[in-house]
Amino acid sequence: MTLRLVVVDDHPVVRDGLRGMLGTQPDFEIVGEAAGGLEALTVVEAVVPDVVLTDLRMPEPSGGTLIRLLRERVPSVRVLVLTTHDTDSDVLPAVEAGAIGYLLKDAPREELFRAVRAAARGETVLAPSVAALLLERVRPKPTLTRARLSARELDVLALIAEGRTNREAAAELFISEATVKTHLLHIYAKLEVPDRASAVAAAYRRGILER
């Protein structure tokens, strides 16, 4: 099956290079190209390709806006981003707008060929740096749990929560009062609080201590 492609980039040299590279594959056919967003919308609506390879930063509409419009006007089209930019401000809007793939322009040609074929099949293709960025954004942020405090810090915190003084806590744990103060400083830093009362309140609120 021949895959029909449209190349969108505001640099003629890049378009020429992509056309020449993609043209080496017998199952690829370049059916259109565009130098900006408005032209891309017109071309894609006219030829209805399988895959659009597009840069992000070019004459408007561009980036996520262009991808969203392409998907709205030609729902069957798969949009594969091919760009030099892999920052949050570029990647996230593109993916949220419906891009099925995101590659960087320094990708090896064989990787690009595989990405085009995968995109046509509806498979997501991401450059490693982009995949790592997205994973970091969706991964739940760690919250402070009992495991983040040492066993001795938990002991000190529990005694403080019971109303013990530093001296009383030291005596019960068979450590010096200075050591108790050191543990408290570590607890304050980990809980991001200024004093013992705030530490106890935060510990109960976060489930580190049980009432």
Automatic annotation (TrEMBL):
SUPFAM superfamilies, A to Z: C-terminal effector domain of the bipartite response regulators, CheY-like
Is DNA-binding found in the keyword set?
yes
From the UniProt record, which GO molecular function terms apply?
A: DNA binding
- PROSITE patterns recorded: HTH_LUXR_2, RESPONSE_REGULATORY
Question: For the modification 4-aspartylphosphate, which residues carry it?
Answer: 55
Ranges where the HTH luxR-type domain occurs: 142-207
Its keywords, alphabetically, are:
DNA-binding, Phosphoprotein, Transcription, Transcription regulation
Signal peptide stretch: none
GO biological process entries: phosphorelay signal transduction system; regulation of DNA-templated transcription
Q: Which InterPro entries match?
A: CheY-like_superfamily, NreC/VraR/RcsB-like_REC, Sig_transdc_resp-reg_C-effctor, Sig_transdc_resp-reg_receiver, Tscrpt_reg_LuxR_C, WalR-like
The chain positions of domain Response regulatory read 4-120
Q: What is this protein called?
A: DNA-binding NarL/FixJ family response regulator
Classification from the root reads: Bacteria, Bacillati, Actinomycetota, Actinomycetes, Pseudonocardiales
